[in-house]
Amino acid sequence: MLSLLAAPAVAQPSDAPQLSETRLLRRITLRLLNRPPTHEEYEALLATPTAGRAAFVERALDRMLASDEFRDALVAWGLEYFRVAEYLPEDGPMIHNRLIDLAMCGEGTPHAGAFHTIRDGDAICTDASAPVRTLADPWFDPGGSVRLVGDAGNEAINVRDAAGTERYCGDVMFGGSVYNVQSPYDGCGCGPHAVFCDRMTRGYEDTRPQVDHSLRRSIMEEPARLFAHVVAEDRPYSDLVTGDYTVVDQGVFAIYRAQARYLGDRDHHDDTWFTEFPDPTEWREVKISRLNRFFLDERDYRFDPRTEAGSPRGVPSAGVLTMAGTNSTFPRERVRAARWMEIFACKEFNPPSPDIAFDPYQTDPAREGSCQHCHQGIDPAAVFFKRFQDRGSLLAGIGPMSLSSLDPRDDTRERAEGAFVPNTLMTPITDAQAVANPDARLIDFLADPDATLLGERGDGTIGPLGFGKILIESGAFDACAVRNAYERFGGRELDPGLDARRIAMLASDFATTGRSMRALIRRLLVAEEARLGY
Ligand code: HEC
What digits encode the pLDDT tens for the residues 365-378? Predict the structure, then answer.
């Protein structure tokens, strides 16, 4: 077996004994699969002649790395890693998905088993004269059908209101509470293939993400699923932050489509994407731009609201950084920046020492007061996350593409105007520019010539992809990936000071060999160090 490093930065306990092959198999299995070997796996090892046991353990390691069980363990690791899904009993976050909720008519009512909108209310179930439609191929049951009672059965995409104005039926709104999403227009229902609606088969607890197979749970699992996919399929690990693809199940696809409609993408009603998901629980790889065309495939899209009129066409897709689940869990740009810097650059934000004197804080936490101690590192990252809407219990999506398109009373506009203060590092525009064009506040790349993030200036790509590129370019991403992998598979935490050389060497090898996390994990598990122990 190869030694991991010729010159370990910390003294190894050289007198530590080598683990026996049975102990080694146990260690590797625990680290990869979160369980000890089975009785049969031990038996097979012991049936192997002593001389062949080391090779047996390596073969077992390769089988494990290729197994579905390893992929499941990666999903579990990913859930911890991204701290997105909060599967707490009872108090998971209440999240809405922009789909009209359908409730089921109960047993003993004339329409038992049919679904109705919350706007129509339970009363419609007992109204035998209410219209019922059987809709073939609803998005949530391709090849099947669903019975819809009352307004729910209307398939219109557009209707005319009393004043003759054409209205779009996918313009859903909240009817008093987070559960009560409905179309504001008479004559609108679930639309073709029921794309505007989703069933609440288990009642309101479906709005909580800890429920198995709920749409909310899926959307919170998306980051961990992409993580597991990237590692198991041996894709470059950097695809997590700069990739233009993700993995989705049927429900996640539907949610992104709802987001796209909300942003004005209304040309996709003939698209039958759902036929690709006969099994609603299956996760498949898709281009992010297929889910929502406002996530761009271009890898270097630029838009400068100080000098360009109108709005950008969207923001480039960027793996977990542009996901609905992460952007909802980390609401607002500075919170997103801080979490991603912790997760992908292994940064910690600790208070400054009390004996450091700072100038007074006035308006810019990145440059003034004790605030700059943390914010000079956070705000240049926060810039990139401005165009993701903070919608409280809603799923955050991209938008608004322009502030001026929003009603001045819209809380998104009000908050952006309060948070994006001119003449700050995060909003590098003058007061005059903010007056001339309110959208100049939405600058989402490092525009200030003095601003750097992790020592890099960036290439002007807007949105989270610009941030992801800097993470990679700076080397912080690779060093942090190596530290995380070492902690989990190498058996201990690496100290950024004491183990600096080891981290640098592992990170550089990682970067020059295609950022294969699988190869790194394997390497850590076959290293001599992995065999030491008591
Ligand atoms: C110890 C590091 C640290 C210091 C010092 C610090 N901050 Fe922060 N600040 C953070 C972090 C980290 C976040 C992101 C929030 C989170 O972690 O959830 C943040 C978030 C914020 C936000 C956004 C809040 C939101 O929820 O959107 C504002 C505004 C802010 N800080 C202002 C300041 C000001 C003003 C000062 C100085 C008076 C200051 N901060 C000092 C670390 C710091």
Answer: 999 999 999 999 99
